[in-house]
Automatic annotation (TrEMBL), chain B:
InterPro entries: 3Fe4S_ferredoxin, 4Fe4S_Fe-S-bd, Fe-S_cluster_ET. Ferredoxins are iron-sulfur proteins that transfer electrons in a wide variety of metabolic reactions. This is Ferredoxin. Residues 1-29 form the 4Fe-4S ferredoxin-type domain. It holds the Pfam family Fer4_13. Its cofactor is [3Fe-4S] cluster. Keywords: 3Fe-4S, Electron transport, Iron, Iron-sulfur, Metal-binding, Transport. It comes from the Bacteria.
Length: 403, 63
């Protein structure tokens, strides 16, 4: 049966850790606006073509109001990062959203990231020292991919990195699709909320030189700043987004580059390829997670199909990033590809706020690994790499390596 | 080459600054793009074209 005649389960099941599901190519060519069934059982509309995904993500008619009563629920347990009670506290669009974005965005400029680079490299070096001390084989995700972005975002926000195991668990529950039950999720979100409230209260008494202290210092909405609740949710959001996605991407990037070791050798021979190799890894990541859901408040047409008001659309950036109409040899990993206008960070006004941070972290990790562990290789066959299951972010469960 | 930027559309991704720091900057107080050189020297043309192609907000125009 072709993908046109059925309602596909979404996310589309896929055992291969680094390869895309076969359905993507068929969807792009024959069914670019497809019906899918989400883990909640609700139906949604899946987009897989580059032009459609890019246009929808940049179109304000496709809102982030996943709390609307007729919006599809992602998870049967409710309360996801997209639709929970916290999701609507940050303004969704228009001038209010732009105001929020620019207040926070000043912390994520390219210059700020360049200034953080030596510090990131120091952290990466120390983590590699620890890996070497413990000896091979090692899990690159646990030893480097997870702790590096956690340490960096904790320093930026002024959050104690020693608490990382706790907020990592809270993050996972916020990103739940099928892993956790409703009670677990509610308990975890309550703990996370209380933790961040206490942290902000401490910063009000004794401000530091971190992002959250400075957001507090701007003042409330009457002073051009954010409300207390908005600061709190911003802190939770940045803590979740600042480590989960990059932690997973470091592991996937290294796995992709080692899966065909000629890629790793090309980078050893010419480290000036690091920048484009990072972008190509982001483009080819077939395990990036759920994609981005949007809720349609008015009837709109996409690729010749009329979508009624109330439709929930899921944009698969990962499928769009392999669109042959946009990328030559889209299925091939070309470490020199340029320009590489992939959609891994989304597009438009809501495109990832932390993308300069993520790019810099990925580049730094690769630089340090190539220099310190040039003999790095996967310690298991690619076929044995396992995916993270049941969360809205995709990743590898572990990345076993030796050197 | 003639470069334009749309400050309203800009989402502060910083890709243009990473690719062509001689041509683009970001304001310190909100991350919005600053055009340093509307008619950049030829040596920067390739980087400017790449910046325009990858700008997530499509906020850079090149003529």
């Amino acid at each position: 049966m072709s993908v046109r005649d059925q309602v596909l389960d979404y996310p589309i099941p896929n055992d291969a850790a680094l390869d895309p599901p076969a359905e993507w190519a068929e969807l792009r060519s024959t069914c670019p606006v497809a019906h899918v069934r989400l883990p909640s059982g609700d139906q949604a509309t899946l987009l897989t073509r580059y032009d459609d995904v890019r246009a929808v993500l940049a179109d304000p008619r496709f809102t982030r109001r996943l709390t609307a009563p007729d919006a599809a629920r992602l998870s049967a347990e409710g309360g996801s990062v997209f639709s929970g009670e916290f999701a609507q506290i940050i303004p969704d669009g228009g001038e209010e959203h732009q105001h929020w974005r620019r207040l926070v965005g000043r912390w994520f400029t390219a210059k700020r990231m360049a200034a953080l680079r030596p510090r990131m490299a120091r952290i990466a070096e120390d983590l590699v020292d620890e890996l070497v001390e413990r000896g091979a084989p090692a899990d690159l995700k646990a030893g480097l991919g997870f702790p590096l972005p956690v340490f960096v975002i904790c320093e930026m926000l002024g959050v104690p990195a020693d608490d990382r195991e706790r907020f990592s668990y809270w993050s996972d529950t916020l990103l739940n699709l099928t892993r956790y039950g409703q009670d677990e999720i509610e308990a975890a979100q309550g703990e996370f909320f209380a933790y961040m409230s206490d942290l902000l209260a401490a910063k009000r008494r004794e401000p530091g030189e971190d992002l959250l202290s400075e957001l507090i210092a701007v003042g409330g909405p009457e002073d051009g700043g954010l409300s207390d609740l908005q600061i709190l949710v911003t802190g939770m959001g940045l803590l979740v987004a600042g480590h989960e996605t990059t932690a997973n991407m470091i592991g996937k990037m290294v796995a992709m580059l080692l899966a065909d070791r000629t890629r790793w050798e090309s980078l050893l021979a010419d480290p000036s390829l690091i920048r484009t190799a990072v972008e190509e890894s982001l483009r080819l990541d077939s395990n990036s997670g759920f994609g981005l859901p949007r809720y349609l408040r008015e009837e709109t047409e996409v690729s010749g199909t009329v979508l009624p008001r109330g439709t929930t659309v899921v944009c698969s950036m990962a499928a769009a990033n392999r669109d042959e109409d946009v990328f030559d040899a889209a299925g091939e990993m070309d470490l020199r590809r340029s320009p590489n206008p992939h959609l891994a960070f989304g597009a438009g006004a809501h495109s990832c706020l932390g993308q300069a941070l993520a790019r810099t972290e990925l580049q730094v990790v690769l630089e340090v690994l190539l220099r310190r562990l040039p003999s790095l290789e996967l310690a298991v066959p690619v076929a044995e790499l396992e995916r993270v299951e049941g969360l809205a972010v995709g990743g590898l469960a572990t990345v076993p390596v030796r050197w | 080459m003639n470069v334009t930027v749309d400050e309203e559309k800009c989402c502060g991704a910083g890709q243009c600054v990473l690719l062509a720091p001689e041509v683009f900057d970001q304001r310190d107080d909100d991350g919005v793009v600053v055009l340093l050189s509307p008619e950049p020297a030829e040596e920067h043309h390739a980087a400017v074209r790449e910046a325009a192609a990858v700008c997530p907000a499509a906020a850079i125009g090149v003529r």
